[in-house]
Amino acid sequence: MKISTTAQAGALESNDVLVTVMPNDQGGVQIQLETKRVIFKQFGKQIEEVVRGKVSEMDVDDVIIKVQDKGALNYTIRARVQTALERALASGTRD
Questions:
Q1: What pLDDT digit, counting tens, does each position of 19-38 carry?
Q2: What is the DSSP string of 25-65?
Q3: In which element (H, E) is residue 16 found?
Q4: How many other C-beta atoms are found inside a 10 Å radius of the C-beta of residue 44?
Q5: Band of the pLDDT at 92, cuts 50, 70, 90?
Q6: What strands, in cross-sheet order, belong to the sheet with 17-23?
Q7: CA distances from 47 to 68, 86, 90, 95 (A)
């Protein structure tokens, strides 16, 4: 599936994550991770794997996912990615 609109889920509060999804005209899944440097070094690859896993599970293609992490746990990241993708997919079907 492909999304045709931008959508968000989450918040920029402590222990949360703001996930923004948008169509990727160049194709493929691109992840833009913003977090503290120490978190990125220790957990960056794991966060990206969690995001890619949820995108793959939902069978979404050609998407840019911006992840602004504030210390969220994996289950929160998965939930935010899923919600943002569901919002983008629902918005695209109303046109």
A1: 999 999 999 999 999 999 99
A2: TT-SEEEEEE--HHHHHHHHHHHHHHHHHHHHHTT-BSEEE
A3: none
A4: 15
A5: low
A6: 7-10, 17-23, 63-69, 29-34
A7: 11, 20, 25, 33
- How many other CB atoms sit within 10 Å of the CB of residue 54? 21
Q: Identify the DSSP state of 70.
A: S
Q: Could you report the per-residue pLDDT of 6-23, keeping only the tens digit for each? A: 999 999 999 999 999 999
Which residue type is seen at 2?
K
| Structural contact between residues 8 and 20, judged by C-beta atoms closer than 8 angstroms | yes
pLDDT digits (tens, 9 = 90+) for 74-84: 999 999 999 99
92 token code pair: 């695209």
- Domains of the chain by start residue, with CATH: 7-90 (3.30.230.10)
Which residues face 32 on adjacent strands? 66
